[in-house]
């Protein structure tokens, strides 16, 4: 099974982000008494016919936002890490192995006001092959992560392209967002299940 992905990420810090399309949210109170919230919003998966024509391939595009919100004492001084990923469930594989691959073709950073940084054609690639047996099984994939600070912000994904090859049966995808504070406190929110 191979998972390949292409991802465009924009990390935006702004104060007043609307949370109208919330798909899932979870929160903790950290050691300093601040409420730290992980939020998924505007999640959309578009499943398409596999480009390789293989009946054992599943292919999709993912759009959405992975958000964080911090409130309470000294919220402006808060810092941590945000990670976006997937749980991929499968009933069976052909060879007992999973291969995950993804890349990020561009990255943009926007802070309040006019400052902006865009780096085009930045293509870090990552991949791993995991012995999972012939199934059924669930694998967790970390797709993107970055350092965050302040009271709120988000990573926006547009056109994250994924494929799973070598799967017998239906594939289930559950997106998640994880926030880890600088002290190691962790909160994860799991989004709705999508099936191909």
TrEMBL record:
Cited Pfam families: MspA
Origin: domain of life: Bacteria
Keyword annotations: Signal
InterPro entries in alphabetical order: Leukocidin/porin_MspA_sf, Porin_fam_mycobact-type
Secretion signal, residue range per the UniProt entry: 1-20
SUPFAM superfamilies to which the protein is assigned, alphabetical: Leukocidin-like (SSF56959)
Protein name (database record): MspA family porin
Natural source organism: Nocardia huaxiensis
Lineage, top ranks: Bacteria, Bacillati, Actinomycetota, Actinomycetes, Mycobacteriales
């Amino acid at each position: 099974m191979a998972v390949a992905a292409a991802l465009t990420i924009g990390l935006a810090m702004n104060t007043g982000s609307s949370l109208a399309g919330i798909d899932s949210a979870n929160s903790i109170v950290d050691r300093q008494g601040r409420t730290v919230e992980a939020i998924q919003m505007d999640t959309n998966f578009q499943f398409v016919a596999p480009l390789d024509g293989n009946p054992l391939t599943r292919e999709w595009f993912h759009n959405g936002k992975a958000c964080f919100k911090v409130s309470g004492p000294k919220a402006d001084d808060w810092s941590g890490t945000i990670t976006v990923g997937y749980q991929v469930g499968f009933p069976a594989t052909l060879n007992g192995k999973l291969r995950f691959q993804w890349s990020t073709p561009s990255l943009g950073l926007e802070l309040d006001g006019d400052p902006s940084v865009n780096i085009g054609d930045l293509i870090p690639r990552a991949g791993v092959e995991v012995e999972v047996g012939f199934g059924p099984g669930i694998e967790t994939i970390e797709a993107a992560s970055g350092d965050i600070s302040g009271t709120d912000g988000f990573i926006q994904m547009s056109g994250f392209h994924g494929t799973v090859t070598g799967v017998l049966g239906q594939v289930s995808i559950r997106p998640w967002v994880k926030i880890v504070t600088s002290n190691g406190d962790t909160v994860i929110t799991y989004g709705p299940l999508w099936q191909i």
